[in-house]
Design goal:
The protein is built from 10 helices and 8 strands. It is of the alpha/beta class. The radius of gyration is 18 Å and the shape is globular. The protein starts with 5 loop residues before the first strand and ends with a helix.
Length: 281
């Protein structure tokens, strides 16, 4: 077994042809670093279903990096999910990121025949056996809709026991929360790899807004330093690369099995961290 950590990169499907071409260029550059896989997100309520499907097949087939589609159960029927699973299986896709998914604006309560990620994992296993390597989500700082941390841990355990192979966390900026989450998970008998999700820092206002909405804590010292840089993009990116590199070093030194970069369809911020870490290519 190699000591090289598992590195993966996440994309989102774009709305325009120009954006899609940029995504493919970004993916081709990241592919030269030989990541373990790419993943591609799935919009709220399956709103990007066709674009996700097309992007996954293109990344896997043309860029030649194994690509994992995100699949969520909110808003999709079992027939819809079954059709997608068999499309991916027939195309040779081997990995899936299984999520409950976000509700589209105005949908209200979850609809669809499956309501939770553990039910989706069970469904995938029932339909396709062991064909897919299944990733699920983990929330070191707690899912924003969970009642409390203990309930959230039990929800995570249900997803794992339903047949998950590995987990990818929501991003965070405090390595201690990751280590504490993993420690608690191990005490529950969960032994699958739990890979930290990494969000490069490139833009303060967007990062602060997104972090507030998804429940990822942006520490005050980081906020204040980013505020001080104002519109100085170069300083923000240099500071961000340093902060994220230091955190990733601590995560890997502490036993994290790899890193999953939320690229936002950009190559350079993630690769700056990769190069700083002196990871193999």
């Amino acid at each position: 077994m190699s000591n090289q950590p598992r590195i993966s990169f996440e994309f989102f499907p774009t709305k325009t042809d120009t954006g899609h071409e940029k995504l493919l260029t970004t993916a081709a550059k990241l592919a030269t670093y030989n990541p373990e896989f790419f993943s591609c997100t799935y919009g709220a309520g399956g709103s990007t279903r066709d674009r996700t499907l097309n992007t996954v097949l293109q990344l896997d087939g043309e860029i030649k990096v194994p690509t994992a589609p995100h699949l969520s159960c909110v808003g999709d029927s079992k027939d819809d999910l079954r059709e997608l699973l068999h499309l991916y299986k027939d195309a040779g896709i081997k990995r899936i990121v299984a999520l409950r998914g976000d509700l589209p604006s105005g949908m209200g309560m979850a609809n669809g025949e499956l309501r939770y990620a553990n039910e989706l994992v069970e469904f995938i296993r029932h339909e396709t056996g062991d064909h897919f390597y299944i990733e699920v989500a983990a929330y070191p700082e707690m899912h924003p809709q969970a009642r409390d941390f203990e309930v959230d841990l039990q929800n995570f355990a249900r997803k794992v026991h339903a047949g998950s192979d590995s987990a990818i966390t929501q991003y965070f900026f405090n390595a201690d929360c990751y280590f504490y989450f993993v420690e608690r998970a191990r005490k529950l008998g969960i032994d699958i790899p739990i890979v930290p999700g990494i969000m490069p820092i490139t833009n303060y206002s967007k990062l602060a807004r997104f972090s507030d909405s998804c429940g990822a804590e942006l520490p005050r010292w980081i906020r204040k330093q980013l505020e001080a840089y104002g519109d100085d993009t170069a300083s923000i990116q240099a500071f961000g690369a340093e902060v994220i590199t230091n955190m990733c070093e601590r995560l890997l030194d502490g036993g994290a099995p790899g890193l999953h970069f939320y690229t936002l369809n950009q190559a350079e911020p993630s690769l700056a961290v990769w190069d700083n870490l002196k990871l193999n290519r």
